[in-house]
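ARCHIVE CARD
Drawer: 12
Card no.: 0347
Subject: one protein chain, sequence and derived structure
Cross-reference: see card 0346
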Amino acid sequence: MKRARTNRAAAILLGPFFVLFTVAMVLPIGYAVWLSLFTEKQSGLGFGGTETVFSGLDNYTAALGDRAFREGFGVLLGYCLFYIPLLLVGALALALLLDSTLARARRFFQLALFLPHAVPGIIAALIWVYLYTPQLSPVVSAMESGGIGFDFFSPDGALPSVVNIALWEWLGYNMVIFYAALQAIDRSVLEAATVDGAGAWRTALSIKVPLIRSSLVMVALFTVIGSLQLFTEPLILNKGTGSAVSSTWTPNMYAYTAAFERNDYGLAAAASILLALTAALLSFVVTRFTGRKGKKA
């Protein structure tokens, strides 16, 4: 009887979550999978209406066979290799600095570093487009006066430009996560290390960092997933800036272009499903790798 009441209470408490999860996640994914199996074709010589026909895996093969879609994954690879290490190392370094005994005005710097995350992604991208634009940007003018010439919209400058915007948005947010984890460490452990003669660097790298490993793994996992969904920043750079960022620069932009510019919803759905499978695979690899590393440690 007691167990039945417990199960009933659990069902009542978990019910709203599963309803929301089904409506917001399961049904959209299922609809996308169904949509990816169909395509629209014009009847006759193109003068008639369109009809939706079952195409099986044709949309998937079309997406994988499209060079623009494959190159989008190459851009994501370069973005991840550039962005993720900078984000993790930078956020961790800032958190360790704020947690050290040398830090002053911790509250001020926490707020100052976190504030960029409060700015919506579109607004942040627009701000940086202004700062990247010659004849408008004080940053570009200062660089040119110092003899530094760099075109943020060029093929070589597009990726660093997007990485810079993403770092500006997310560095402070992840720093707060790491700082909160550092604050949860038992102070007696750190005091014991100091008594044993460990310096600040040794304490930070050999004691603090291993103790917040779970936070590092969580941030790394979410950053990988978020990186694969790169969309807002390059989309703003693509609109009217003369940037090398094309309308199919990332897989998300490829799906957006296919759906809303070419009206090919089947191809867009297939591209989205392929991107989701890639994110799931990478998430599995990250969790499996970090899990094995944790067991060895």
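Annotation on reverse: The longest strand covers residues 38-42. The longest helix spans residues 2-36.
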